[in-house]
Each structure stands twice: as C-alpha cells, then as structure tokens.
Design goal:
- There is one protein chain.
- By secondary structure, this protein is an alpha/beta fold.
- The protein is built from 19 helices and 15 strands.
- The strands form two sheets. It has a nine-stranded mixed beta sheet, with helices on both faces. Strands 12-11-10-13-14-15 form a six-stranded parallel beta sheet, with helices on both faces.
- Helix 9 crosses helix 14, helix 10 packs across helix 13 and helix 17 packs parallel to helix 19.
- The radius of gyration is 22 Å and the shape is globular.
- The relative contact order is 0.11.
- Bound molecules: adenosine-5'-diphosphate-glucose.
- Adenosine-5'-diphosphate-glucose (ADQ) binds next to helix 2, strand 10, strand 11 and helix 14.
- Pfam families: Glyco_transf_20.
- Belongs to the glycosyltransferase 20 family.
- This is Trehalose-6-phosphate synthase.
- It comes from Actinoplanes ianthinogenes.
Length: about 475
C-alpha cells in the first residue's frame, strides 16, 4: 500500500468518471507511477478538489482510496503547514518559513485521517509505504492503530540539519511521527545523519549504524536515491514522432543556435531567478548573443494558491519580460518562457533539442529532470549543468557542477558547457548514462523494499522475478 498526499489521478478525469493515471508535474507521482501501474496495490491519497469526491474505480491494478479534504483543510494542511512551514524550512530556509499555530492542528487532524484510511483498508501484516513531508505524522499514528503492519516512510525532499529543524515549534511530535516507521528512507546519507542527531538531542535516543533505538523499538534509516524509468524515457526519446518533433523545435529555434534549456516546477527552490540573472549578465557582457544562443525556460505552474508562489511567478515573468525587452530582436527573443504543462513526449523532444540543460536548484532532494535529460540523450551529446545542491549531483559527478549562489561561477560554468568539445561532452554523458542504467526507478524500489522487509518475504521473491514491480504485487493483500 502507498499512502501519499495525492492520488495519481487527473482531476478532470476524476470528475467525469474516466480515470487515468495522472502524470502530475510533481516528481513523487512520476517516480511511483512506474512501479505501481501494473501491481495490485492500494493507493491512499487526496483526489484533489473539495469534499468526499466521486467514487473512484480501480485504475489498472491499483485500488484508489480517496481521502477527503475541505477547503479549510487544504489551506491549513497543504498550503499552510506542509508548503509554507516544512517545505521552505527543509530547503535550507531559502525562503522564510511561516509558523502559524492553527495550521499545525489541521496538519495533525489530516494526518490522522490518512492514517485511519490506511488502517481501514490494509490487509493483515501488510507493508505500507508512506510518502513525504505532508504525512510525517502518519507512521506513528498508523503504528498505534495497526501494530501488525510493516511501515516504511520515505522523504523525497531534504531533511535539514538540527540548526534548522530546531526552529520548528512542534519539532518533537514531527520527529516522533516519522520514527513510528520501521524504515525511514532519505535521498542522501546526510539526511539520515541529521535524523540520528535530532533523535539523540530531542528524544534521548541511542543511535547506531543506520539505527535509532527509541521507545523500546529500533528504527532503521538509510539513503535510497530515487530515480526515473530510464527505459521509458530512452524509448520515448527514440520514437520517430519525438525525433521529428525535436527536429521541428530545432528548426523553429534556429538551426545554428545554441539552445539552453531549463524545466522546473515554478518553485523558489529551483533557482530560476538566479539563473535568469546569470543569463542577463552574460547577454549584457556580450559573452552570449541573441543571434547565436537562446534560452528555453519551461516553468510549470505549481501551488498557485500559495501567495509566495504567485509572487515568484510575477517576479520571474517580470524578469523574462525585461530581458526580452532589452536584448531580444524582432522574431528573436532572448528567452522562450513557457508556463505550461507538457506531456512526456513533448518533454523528451525538448531534452533532445537542448545543447545545454541547466538544472540549478538552490536545494533539491534529488531532481528528476536532470536524470530525464541524461536518459533522453541516446546521441551521447548535450551538456548538463547541475547544482551541487541537488541530490542528483552526488550521483552524476561528471555533470558541470555549479554553486548557483555564486553568480560568477554560474556564468563561467554556463560558458564552459556552451563551449565544451564534443569529445568531452561524450565522455561526461557516457559516465552519467552508465550510472543511470544501473540505478533506475526499479532499482530504487528494490533497494527500499528489500531493506523494509527484514523478514525476507518480499526480498526472497526479488531475485526470482524479472520485474521488481511484481515483488510488491505478489505479496499478500498489501
Ligand atoms: P519536484 O520538486 O516536483 O519533486 P523534480 O524531481 O524535478 O521536482 O520532478 C519534477 C517532475 O515534473 C519531473 O518528472 C518533470 O519531468 C516534471 N515536469 C517539470 N516540468 C513539467 C512540465 N512543464 N510539464 C510536465 N511535467 C513537468 C520532489 C522533490 C525532488 C525529487 C522528487 C522525487 O522536490 O527533489 O526528485 O520529488 O523524489
């Protein structure tokens, strides 16, 4: 069973009854989509919208168990505590976290509702995999309701060091909530270390090698870097219609132009403003000219009911307008700005078209866009400029790594990537593709589930099956 904030379901599709898997622009749904789409599992989550919503059918082999949220609850739990308190704090407080007491009450009540929904439908001794910062209290609540369950928790975003976490008014409850799980997984080792330090400090826990002993139980921890469906992206980018679309994009952008591409959820952690400043200065200094270089910035709308996201969008659009106004020419903008969702084939075509992919978040749990770009480049070319502060940097050291806060460093790195020799690019890309081939989404699920299931029931089946998805599927009514 998966318990996540959102059901992997398209809002509109749900309303007229024709449900399809939703490939939302968020990374979490994308990551789990590949694993569960053929597995008889249950997914507990909010279906979007207000109130109880329609009765939902089974999608593929996944049963959906919706959790209803009122609009007040969406404000307090989702927009408030999850996305205005925890999200900024966990991302190095790159934006000031907001602490509002009433949000906490709603967050707790909604977490309790998710835990009750999971407890109600989980089979005996089922494995329940709880996802992300929205539901940090669920593991403890679920354990109290159903001590028979095997409970996993995975944090998709960074987990901060004690100096930041200690700011949280409800730090003890939040920490204790996650430690209700049997296994707490993170993207990076440092996060597991931060958890151990906090458990010692706040709960008086004993900690060992990837273990936290607290309240008479042992909780295991570890790093499980999430990945993408590499084969799917590779196949997509090789499809004739995608190749043709990439050719058309290249033609429309200018055959001889160097194309820089960025694809982000419109979020202040993604470093879009820093990137635009660097690009403006490259234009101003004459290092980059509109007649031979163009930036394509895709920024898909996100969390638009949160004020800081609306403000960010206004600032970014103002800056794009200024840069185009100052440096663009008739029929030749400096930046193509696209504030729209794209389907997977369109994204694959964009990745194929880029000479330089610019992924420069200020802090990011992993960043799947970087991995999608690498998987899409079967031609072995294209440069990846990647922030040191993305989890992906630990796995892709042959990218052009950069500190996005260092404006001069960012400008120099963009120029290095633009001017790199094809042989250098091929060597870098080949190393990244080798790594990804062995570390795809199935490897992630396999690693996590093997670690979760210490009884060996899940793990025993793993080597016998071709597809790790089936390992989860075949075990009991999980
Ligand atoms: P996100 O912050 O949402 O994920 P990311 O990992 O980059 O960030 O995933 C974004 C996903 O959205 C990618 O799969 C991308 O293709 C897709 N996307 C972006 N723009 C799009 C557009 N215009 N149209 C359609 N799709 C678009 C969180 C964490 C990350 C972590 C993931 C998974 O913040 O650090 O990598 O979860 O764990």
């Amino acid at each position: 069973m998966v318990v996540a904030n959102r059901l992997p379901l398209d809002d509109n599709a749900a309303r007229d009854g024709a449900c399809e898997w939703r490939r939302s622009p968020g990374g979490l749904t994308g990551a789990l989509h590949s694993i569960l789409q053929q597995a008889p599992a249950t997914w507990v989550g909010w279906g979007g919208g207000e109130g109880p919503g329609p009765r939902l059918p089974t999608v593929g082999s996944v049963r959906l168990r919706p959790v209803a949220l009122s609009s007040d609850e969406q404000r307090g739990y989702y927009e408030g505590f999850a996305n205005s308190t925890l999200w900024p704090l966990y991302h190095d407080a790159v934006q000031q976290p907001v602490f509002q007491r009433e949000w906490w009450e709603t967050y707790r009540a909604v977490n309790q509702r998710f835990a009750e929904a999971a407890a109600e439908v989980a089979g005996r001794h089922a494995a329940v995999w709880v996802q992300d910062y929205h539901l940090q209290l669920v593991p403890r609540m679920l354990r109290e309701l159903r001590p028979d369950l095997l409970i996993g928790f995975f944090m998709h975003i960074p987990f901060p060091p004690p100096e930041l976490f200690m700011q949280l008014p409800r730090r003890v409850e939040l920490l204790d909530g996650m430690l209700g799980a049997d296994l707490v997984g993170f993207q990076r080792e440092q996060a597991a270390h931060n958890l151990a330090q906090l458990a010692q400090k706040l709960l008086g826990a004993q900690t060992g090698d990837h273990t936290v002993h607290v309240g008479g139980r042992t909780v295991r921890t570890g790093a499980f870097p999430v990945s993408i469906d590499v084969a799917e992206m590779a196949a997509l980018s090789a499809r004739p219609d995608v190749v043709a679309h990439a050719g058309k994009l290249r033609h429309d952008l200018g055959e001889s132009k160097r194309v820089l591409l960025s694809v982000d959820r419109l979020d202040y952690t993604k470093g879009i403003e820093h990137r635009l400043t660097a690009y403006r200065e490259l234009l101003r200094d004459g290092h980059v000219k509109v007649r031979d270089t163009v930036l394509v910035q895709v920024a898909v709308p996100s969390r638009e009911r949160v004020e800081s996201y609306r403000d960010l969008r206004d600032r970014i659009e103002g800056e794009v307008g200024r840069i185009n106004g100052e440096y663009g020419r008739v029929g030749e903008p400096a930046i193509h700005y696209l504030n729209q969702p794209f389907d997977r084939a369109q994204l694959a075509a964009l990745y194929r078209t880029a000479d330089v992919m610019v992924v420069t978040p200020l802090r990011d749990g992993m960043n799947l866009v970087a991995k999608e770009f690498v998987a899409a480049r079967e031609d072995g070319l294209g440069a990846l400029v990647l922030s040191e502060f993305a989890g992906a940097a630990a796995e892709l050291p042959t990218a052009f790594l950069v500190n996005p806060h260092d404006l001069d460093g960012l400008k120099q790195t963009l120029l290095r990537a633009l001017e790199a020799e094809p042989a250098d690019l091929r060597a870098r890309m080949s190393a990244m593709r080798r790594h990804l081939a062995e570390h795809d989404i199935n490897a992630w699920a396999r690693a996590y589930l093997t670690a979760l299931d210490q009884t060996g029931r899940l793990a025993q089946r793993l080597p016998q099956l071709q597809d790790p998805i089936q390992d989860l599927a075949d075990s009991d009514p999980r």
